[in-house]
Design brief:
The structure holds two protein chains of two kinds.
Chain A: E1 4-8, H1 9-19, E2 22-27, H2 35-46, E3 50-53, H3 57-69, E4 73-78, H4 80-95, E5 101-106, H5 122-127, E6 137-139, H6 144-161, E7 165-170, H7 171-175, E8 177-181, E9 209-210, H8 216-236, E10 240-243, E11 250-253, H9 256-271, E12 276-281, E13 283-285, H10 289-293, E14 302-307, H11 315-322, E15 328-332, H12 341-355
Parallel strand pairs in A: 2-3, 2-4, 4-5, 5-7, 6-7, 11-12, 11-14, 14-15
Antiparallel strand pairs in A: 1-8, 6-13, 10-12
Helix pairs in contact in A: 1-2, 1-6, 3-4, 9-12
Chain B: H1 23-36, E1 43-47, H2 55-58, E2 63-65, H3 71-81, E3 86-92, H4 93-99, H5 101-110, E4 115-120, E5 123-124, E6 130-131, H6 150-153, H7 159-164, E7 171-176, H8 180-198, E8 204-209, H9 213-216, H10 220-234, E9 238-242, H11 243-246
Helix pairs in contact in B: 1-8, 4-5
Classes of the chains: A alpha/beta, B alpha/beta.
Chain lengths: ~350, ~250
């Protein structure tokens, strides 16, 4: 076992990025993720990396685009309004098949919304991170430790797929302090730069180009290849936690910070003899379809979607797997108002007593 | 006798720019200078959006094609990730002085160590001749059909003057490609900019006044005269900043 530290989420994931091999960060100040750029502004130069405080989110993600083209591991982070601005660059990253990691420490929305934590960006993250119809892996850890481990491994996925990886946190996880064990520093040498990159440090002596504009048949072919990749993700990369679902008559579906509050409520309800379980999607894309599709609907009387946003955004993905076999309910708080133990417990109890047979 | 050759930085594809367009001349000048400096293979062309994106077809060396206006941001990332490479952007006026104004000014202000080649033809060529941020007062375009009116559209951006007003940039110059002298001056300026980048002197910016016979609705010869009587008096050629000369 390594040494344990007590760290704030944003700082812990910034250190995890450095240890995961990240050597370039560009970003723009926005609450509640400011500790990430603040930490990296001094930390990256210590390890020979580069930090740029961009003039905008748009410029920042395009700096990442340029640095990624050179074959080094890059990161940008923001919160909802800034992720909207990065949408252009994220689409170009996907179009140009460039790996990068993007972190959203989300807050209330729409618009300028609220600087307080919320889970208001599920649909943006999983359906349309930018124009043109592409997807990224979307991870939604629920502890600082899991966030650290996710960020640390994110570039392995990004480079495997030559595609950006998106990590959806919320202001709670970004700012909470928890015990965390940091992983070892990965040593990545300049000569390890991928063959497709524009680095000449890897001995390449032929022309390479990076672009997201193609002739029509080539673009169609790349679209189809991306489609195959997304299908493969469904086979290989789904991550989900199932808690007490085997005999469950009610199943809560919740991710990130909402899953922690929901788990407390599930345990308390179990003590009262209610057969209830929890499904926690860890990857939001690919969505853990099978966990919900294959529930025993002769037993399950209801699915309860709990999110820290109103209206619930994950509900359509859940309903597509339930296929009308039981009712789907939702409960949430929104706008930066937090879910709390009593509120979630009482909401579930009310749904169970009033909402089903 | 001087030998007239195609720069090795260029691919063998024939130019598809419109007849009389100075983009091909500007691209050739850059390629020649890279050859002269032995930097063809070490160069990285950050390709922008507009007619300049046709460089995708004509460029024989490494390139990265980026979003509209964002070339200075992408070049910032590329150069910092791999500082030994000679990095340059090649941008038109819509790309650089409208949608990419924040990116160009901020990269210049940070003194990023790369070179910007700015082809200013005062119109959006690729999209069919709309008003550009550098369109001259009175100039007719598809979105200023009676001529550009400063009362509603303001005045043409003078990018060299703006960038030279910043503290960080190392070299800022503008030349017109409608005369042999202008072409020679431009080649020297491009060479100086690349040399200064290789010496780590910081941000270098070369504006090339070019034409657009198709969208100006003129013959190539007419554009040369038009540039002498209209473009050059407003966008005055010369060196606007040279930290080496100041030193």
């Amino acid at each position: 076992m390594g040494k344990k530290s007590f760290m704030k989420g944003n700082e812990a994931i910034a250190e995890a990025a450095v240890r995961g091999g990240c050597r370039f960060f560009a970003g723009y100040p926005i609450t509640p993720q400011n500790e990430i750029p603040e930490y990296l502004s001094w930390r990256l130069p210590e390890v020979g990396g580069s930090f740029v405080q961009g003039e905008s989110e748009i410029a920042s993600v395009n700096m990442v685009y340029g640095a990624s083209a050179m074959g080094i591991r890059c990161l940008t982070s923001s919160s909802g309004p800034g992720i909207s601005l990065k949408a252009e660059g994220i689409s170009y990253l996907a179009g140009a098949q460039l790996p990068a990691v993007i972190i959203n420490v989300s807050r209330g929305g729409p618009g300028l919304g609220s600087i307080q934590p919320a889970q208001s960006d599920y649909l943006q993250a999983t359906k349309a991170l930018g124009h043109g119809g592409f997807h990224t892996l979307v991870f939604a850890p629920n502890t600082v430790q899991e966030a650290v481990d996710t960020v640390y491994e994110a570039w392995e996925y990004a480079e495997r797929d030559r595609n950006p990886v998106f990590i959806l946190l919320d202001g709670c996880l970004g700012n909470i302090m928890e015990e965390v064990e940091l992983p070892e520093m990965k040593e990545i040498k300049p000569e390890d730069a991928p063959e497709w990159s524009l680095s000449r440090r890897n001995g390449r002596d032929y022309q390479n180009g990076i672009t997201s504009i193609y002739t029509e048949p080539l673009l169609e072919g790349l679209n189809a290849m991306a489609g195959e990749m997304y299908k493969q993700w469904e086979e290989d990369d789904v991550k989900v936690e199932e808690f007490m679902v085997d005999d469950a008559e009610y199943v809560v579906v919740a991710y990130g910070i909402a899953s922690r509050v929901s788990k407390e409520a599930v345990m308390k309800l179990r003590e009262k003899g209610i057969k209830i379980g929890l499904i926690r999607p860890i990857t939001l894309y690919p969505f853990p379809k099978a966990s919900i599709r294959n529930l025993d609907y002769s037993k399950v009387k209801g699915i309860i979607d709990i999110e820290m946003t109103i209206p619930a955004q994950m509900r359509d993905d859940i309903e597509l797997q339930v296929m009308g076999r039981c009712p789907v309910y939702e409960y949430g708080r929104s706008g930066g108002c937090l879910l709390d133990d009593d509120g979630v417990y009482e909401a579930i109890e009310e749904i169970i007593t009033g909402g089903a047979d | 006798m001087a030998e007239y050759v195609r720069g090795t930085s260029l691919a063998t594809a024939p130019s598809g720019y419109c007849p009389g367009c100075m983009h091909s001349l500007a691209t050739k000048l850059v390629a020649e200078v890279l050859d002269e400096l032995g930097q063809a293979e070490n160069s990285l062309n950050v390709i922008s959006v507009g007619c300049s994106a046709l460089n995708l077809l004509y460029w024989g060396q490494d390139y990265v094609s980026v979003a509209h206006g964002r070339a200075p941001a992408a070049a910032t990332g590329a150069k910092r990730a791999n500082p030994e490479r000679l990095v340059f952007t090649y941008q038109g006026d819509g790309d650089l002085a409208a949608i990419g104004l924040a990116e160009i000014m901020s990269a210049a202000n940070r003194g990023e160590n790369f070179t910007v080649i700015f082809a200013n033809n005062q119109t959006y060529g690729m999209t069919g001749g709309q008003m550009a941020p550098t369109t001259l007062i009175g100039q007719k375009t598809t979105t200023t059909v009676y001529g550009r009116d400063p009362a509603t559209t303001g005045y043409p951006f003078k990018m060299c003057e703006l960038i030279a007003s910043l503290e960080a940039p190392a070299f800022v110059a503008r030349y017109a490609l409608n005369s042999p002298k202008g072409v020679n001056d431009a080649r020297k300026a491009i060479k100086k900019a690349f040399e200064m980048q290789l010496a780590g002197k910081g941000f270098t910016f070369v504006e090339l006044l070019t034409n657009c016979p198709t969208n100006w609705k003129m013959s190539p010869l007419q554009t040369i005269d038009y540039m002498n009587t209209n473009t050059i008096p407003y966008f005055k050629p010369g060196v606007y900043k040279d930290k080496e000369a100041e030193a």
